[in-house]
Amino acid sequence: MNKVPMTVAGEKSLREELEHLKGTARPQVIAAIAEAREHGDLKENAEYHAAREQQGFIEGRIQEIESKLSVAQVIDVTKLPKTGKVIFGVTVSLLNLDTDANVTYRIVGEDEADIKSGRISVTSPIARALIGKEEGDVAVVKTPGGDVEYEIESVEYV
């Protein structure tokens, strides 16, 4: 199976969520199921059915996180040589040559992407256009509204 790139922060976040689900959420839902069972008839017990549904969600999420972590290739960009090239994990500042607007993105794994926080997926059109380019290069991003040109102003390995 192919390895999936992930930042150190992304791995830490998934491990923390996994720890919470296994250590806190799972025991709570097991206790809720036990308590609901004590109330008698399970067919008409809404608390029991809600707790069982919650348990299914928690167990599914635990499996999903464990699966993601098993194929993760954690890349610590701070330990890589600072060549000025755009690679996975870097923070890149761009100048839109059409609008003169500045934007800054961090290129992260698919699960970590959050455009509102300035984190874009390595598989996004912008990231694919930037990967391999260097500071000062112009990258052309194909968008539904036409091609957009960005000049790479800086590449930070943080």
TrEMBL record:
One of its GO terms (molecular function) is translation elongation factor activity. InterPro entries: GreA/GreB_C_sf, TF_GreA/GreB_CS, Tscrpt_elong_fac_GreA, Tscrpt_elong_fac_GreA/B, Tscrpt_elong_fac_GreA/B_C, Tscrpt_elong_fac_GreA/B_fam, Tscrpt_elong_fac_GreA/B_N, Tscrpt_elong_fac_GreA/B_N_sf. Residues 4-74 form the Transcription elongation factor GreA/GreB N-terminal domain. The keyword DNA-binding applies. Residues 83-157 form the Transcription elongation factor GreA/GreB C-terminal domain. Coiled coil: none annotated. It holds the Pfam family GreA_GreB_N. Keywords: DNA-binding, Elongation factor, Protein biosynthesis, Transcription, Transcription regulation. GO terms for biological process: DNA-templated transcription elongation; regulation of DNA-templated transcription elongation. The keyword Transcription regulation applies. Necessary for efficient RNA polymerase transcription elongation past template-encoded arresting sites. The arresting sites in DNA have the property of trapping a certain fraction of elongating RNA polymerases that pass through, resulting in locked ternary complexes. Cleavage of the nascent transcript by cleavage factors such as GreA or GreB allows the resumption of elongation from the new 3'terminus. GreA releases sequences of 2 to 3 nucleotides. Belongs to the GreA/GreB family. This is Transcription elongation factor GreA. The lineage of its organism: Bacteria, Pseudomonadati, Pseudomonadota, Gammaproteobacteria, Oceanospirillales. The gene is greA.
